[in-house]
Amino acid sequence: MSDLTAFALICSLTPSPEPSSSDLMAQHILDQFAAHGVVTSSARVVDHHVAPGVRKDMGDGDEWPVLREKILAADILVLSTPIWVGHPSSLAQRVMERLDADIAETDEEGRPVMAGKVAVVAVVGNEDGAHKTVADMMQGLNDIGFSLPSQGSTYWVGEAMQAVDFKDLAQVPDAVATTTAGVVRNAQHLATLLRRENFPLE
């Protein structure tokens, strides 16, 4: 069992409570974390007013600070995004832009504020682009200070130019389920190690 926490930030363009493939993929990941004793929570970005900008708080009703606090409180961030026209969703890009403010932020000991936190990426879509989307998200997350576990991404993409979504499947394909299990296992392992000993200051 574990006292770790995981927070999923879901970058679907579909507001709650409408079904969302990105939300469902994130939930599969969180369910596996929970089965290993990790405390989990999630939020859809679209349900919050996240203003454009590159500061921690853009004012005027900006709700990013609420989501940022949830990220800071968690050991593991699950970033789940759909593919749209071959790219991460616009909300996933906005999340990365808002996280950019934390590159210069440090904790009480002087480390980058996100150092010691683990991030994994989940992608869904019915078009090509999963590997590029993962690459874009992981590069940004690593720049911001998150640590990425071995094989720290999972995805499902349906047949191109068709209408079947991840949420329409009767069951998760074995290859996706196996990959997701590995993501959870590796992320929890890395987060446990970093909880015991964070990165050195010098």
User: Could you state the CATH homologous superfamily?
Assistant: Flavodoxin domain
The overall strand count is: 6
- Counting copies of identical and different chains, the oligomeric state is single chain
Please give the CATH architecture: 3-Layer(aba) Sandwich
Beta-strand content: 15-25%
Helix/sheet category: alpha/beta
The Rg value, from CA coordinates, equals: 16 Å
How is the CATH topology named? Rossmann fold
Listing every helix as H and every strand as E from the N terminus to the C terminus, the arrangement reads: EHEHEEHEHEH
Outline: globular
Structural description of this entry:
- The protein has 202 residues and is of the alpha/beta class.
- It has one domain (5-196): Flavodoxin domain (Rossmann fold, 3-Layer(aba) Sandwich).
- It has 5 helices and 6 strands; from the N terminus they run βαβαββαβαβα.
- It has helices at residues 21-35, 64-73, 90-99, 130-144, 174-196, and strands at residues 5-10, 39-44, 76-84, 87-88, 118-125, 153-157.
- Strands 1, 2, 3, 4, 5 and 6 form a 6-stranded mixed sheet that branches.
